[in-house]
Amino acid sequence: MGKLIIENFDAFRELEGKTLPEGEWISVTQEMINDFAKATGDFQWIHVDVEKAAKSSPFKKPVAHGFMSLALLSKMIGDLIHVKSSKMGVNYGLNRVRFPSPVLVDSRLKLVANIANIENYGDTGLKITWDCIVKVEGSKKPACVSEFISLMF
User: Going by C-beta distance under 8 Å and a sequence separation of 6 or more, which residues neighbour residue 79?
Assistant: First the structure.
């Protein structure tokens, strides 16, 4: 499904309480995992040492950082929906986060999101609470379940 294009905040408010169409699959490559390790300084071998992971990991492959699937939420939401009248969006925080399933290298992830709540923020903004599930292709459990909060101006 293509990106939802919404004209303005009033039209966006109509999506409150609704589940959005599922996002597109995103492939998690070793390069992405390595780049995330560089950005965070987390070089644990389970993430970046392909040979050691093949020999010593119960998964037999490198595993993406749990926080990587969380960090992809902004991109996944941005790929899913665009509000034309919005000038910018920022991350505000998280209420709950869980990582029920590991994300192995070369896995594919997809976002399923519901707009749980939309409220005014200041004079010109909105505070949006998104219920997010990041699915892992072929897994019964999701990679990440989160209540994610963002601001839109």
Answer: 3, 23, 24
- Look up the domain containing 87 and give its range: 14-152
Q: How many CA atoms lie within 13 A of 144 on its CB side?
A: 27
Q: Is residue 8 part of a domain?
A: no
SS3 (DSSP) at 22: coil
CATH of residue 138: 3.10.129.10
For the stretch 131-150, pLDDT in tens is 999 999 999 999 999 999 99
Domain contains 41:
yes
> 56's torsion region: left (phi>0), alpha (psi -120 to 50) or beta?
alpha
> H or E element: which one contains 73?
helix 73-80
In a domain, 81, yes or no: yes
pTM higher than 0.90 for the full model? yes
